[in-house]
Amino acid sequence: MLADYIDSLTEYSDLYWTSIKETGIMVGYGLVISTIIGLFLGIVLVVTRANHIYENKVIYQVLNIAINILRSLPFIILMVAIIPFTKFIVGTSIGVKGAIVPLVVYTAPYLARLMESALLEVDKGVIEAFQAMGATRNQIIVRVLLKEARPALILGLTIGTIGLIGASAMAGVIGAGGLGDVAIRYGYQRWQPEVMITCVILLVVAVQVVQSLGTVIAKRLRKR
Amino acid sequence: MIQLDHISKVFYQDKRKIEAVKNATLQVKKGEIFGIIGYSGAGKSTLIRCINFLEKPTHGVVRINGVDLASLKEAELRATRRRIGMIFQSFNLLSSNTVFDNVATPLYLVNAPKKEIAKKVRELLELVGLQDKETFYPSQLSGGQKQRVAIARALASDPEILLCDEATSALDPQTTDSILDLLLEINRKYKITIALITHEMHVIKKICDRVAVMEQGEVVEQGKVLDIFSNPQMPITKNFIKSIFDVNLPEHLWNKIQDEDYPGKILRISFVGDHAGEPILADLATKYNLRPNILYGNITQVKDTTFGCLIIRVSGEVSSIDAGIQDLMTQQLQIEVIEHAG
Which pTM does this prediction carry? Predict the structure, then answer.
């Protein structure tokens, strides 16, 4: 039985490698773009709050509601719903390219919330001390908010990445490939349980690696 | 140096109006240590934040060296704030930075040259006695050490004024005293004007030159610490003083005296400064043939001056007692005849 499984591994090794690569590309690009957008939105959500350094009720409320709306859609629905937008941005709504846009639209608001809660943990007293020292508002964002929140930001990013890996598995629906796609097509539709098992193992390993990495980095950064 | 003119601050919390500070006026002179004392919720924290505009007053004018802070543009206000250091009850250090980087923060903010930063930081760490803790993180330090780092940080931009927001309230009595000694040293060595708020009379007594007493948002009494000590007017001020310096005869002592039956009067003698050295009791005995007996007493140091209060019973002939009292009064001692306990 183990021999059969190893046979299947070698038989489908090309397929696995391609799908790992596809997942890697989707998650990689998706993560970089989502992090940039999510971190920016997270900062905006924090500093435009009442009594904060860029207090602005309108921006805060608009952003708050917009993020809630995006966050209420399951990925599979979001992906289909925004096809026109995806086409507008990258010219196609299928393949890896077509998957990255919905992955970002799905992940960025999620990361924004995670970044927001990480940044809210920063001690208000330290911000006040920097104001008293004559720091500019941007110096406060860089030197206090982002610096002090680093461990929490990394942990948030870890959770976001794992969510992104999960979502990328559904991108197979629009022909983007990846491990999820292989699991569905070979494991489910053709009933080849050994392929399914391999995909599951690979996804589990990926998540374990990401989580451990995040935990270790956050621990190193935490000086408390 | 610091001038607060009719300052009021109103907050709205859930549509409820809260007047944290009501019409407070005070001046802090160059080079002095000025204390503001009050119970929690008295508005002192809000008032001290008005000095560097962390809170903008609803009414009233804040002047630093004659300049109205409300008239400054954002960049000018930041420049003014760099001339005003501030330390806090909760230290407010960056937990992710070393002691060195924390102290250097005000210099990083203005992109000072590296060499200059290193020199300044080392000098300040020596001043606060933490030269061997440069590479430590705040979590590795005790409360007193953290406050020392915060003080060094506040001094890094060579401020003229240092604001202390309950700087010793989170510290134990011994550490409190060492921090107060450090503040006094800084005040004398660098001629930095210090404004502090506290709820402990001990802090006022130990280092302040002048004091303002706050109650429910208002400054109810202010003046030289020694004057306030020897002659408090408001009940709240008396309470604060009583907390560290009791000038009343304890009730059990009073009751004991009532049981005994021989003539005499009970006096409270308060004395300030040089008088503490004069043999007033011996004089009463030799000049008037009275027998002074110390029942109760308290002598303390108010910054650099001795302040004391003795409760004595003088017994002897009635006419001699009166003459003796008259004599004491000419010596500018504060004399009070006590007729009841408490």
Answer: 0.88
